[in-house]
Specification:
The termini are far apart. Strands 1, 2, 13, 14 and 15 form a 5-stranded antiparallel beta sheet that branches. A 5-stranded antiparallel beta sheet has the order 6-5-4-3-9, with no helix packed on it. A 3-stranded antiparallel beta sheet has the order 10-11-12, with no helix packed on it. The chain is mainly beta. Mean pLDDT is 92; it is low at 194-202. A hairpin with a 6-residue loop joins strand 10 and strand 11 (136-141). The protein contains 1 helix and 15 strands. The longest helix is centred in the N-terminal third of the chain and has 12 residues, at 4-15. It is globular and about 50 Å long.
Length: 202
């Protein structure tokens, strides 16, 4: 049985329309917010050793790809990884890095497990809820995930996975990038810094 609070939250989530993430977040891929990637298995963040920028490794049935997280540029591609390196392995669920990350191993979150950051140092929170399971809704908030009040004030329903399976979602360690990966596509949101967030009600 649901408590009254749980019932109210469920109704609030079901009624919330999908809306863009608030400033300073903006989509990396345009005009469509998601990049189609068939057979996506998982993703993992890393830092460019030369620039300090966020990079994103994508593991799919089509191989491995390394993206610049702020621009969406494809930096490296391996369509035929070694059989023992194709999917994440070991206690850390890692794959070998490619391109500027060659010689390192990248932790991957997705089909095989693992996870990404769900909070940032300056107060953003990301949650996955399923009031209409098996579909998943991605919620972004600035109130610590309390979800008080109407959507668009302290929280936003930014993604609704209905036609593909959610693999994972989360922030980069720097807090500058937000990624949502499903079995069919990748959504990236970025922001210039890590200290800006909307004030109450905006």
């Amino acid at each position: 049985m649901f408590t009254e609070h749980q019932r109210q939250l469920r109704e609030r989530f079901l009624a919330a329309p999908v809306s863009p993430a608030p400033p300073p977040w903006h989509p990396v891929f345009r005009p469509a917010p998601a990049l189609p990637i068939g057979g996506l298995l998982g993703i993992g963040f890393a830092t460019d050793p030369a620039t300090g920028d966020d990079l994103l490794m994508v593991v799919s049935q089509g191989g491995h790809g390394l993206f610049h997280a702020a621009t969406g540029a494809l930096l490296a591609r391996d369509r035929d990884p070694d059989a023992d390196a194709w999917e994440p392995t070991g206690p850390g669920l890692t794959v070998p890095g490619i391109g500027p990350l060659a010689g390192t191993r990248i932790p991957i979150a997705g089909l095989h497990g693992g996870g990404l950051h769900t909070t940032t140092d300056d107060g953003w929170t990301l949650d996955v809820v399923s009031p209409d399971w098996p579909h998943h809704r991605i919620l972004l908030s600035t109130d610590g995930g309390l979800y008080h009040g109407p959507t668009g004030t302290h929280w936003w329903h930014i993604h609704h996975a209905t036609h593909s399976t959610l693999r994972t979602c989360g922030f980069s360690p720097s807090g500058r990038t937000l990624a949502i990966a499903t079995s069919a596509d990748l959504t990236l949101l970025t922001r210039a810094g890590t200290r800006t967030r909307p004030s109450s009600g905006g």
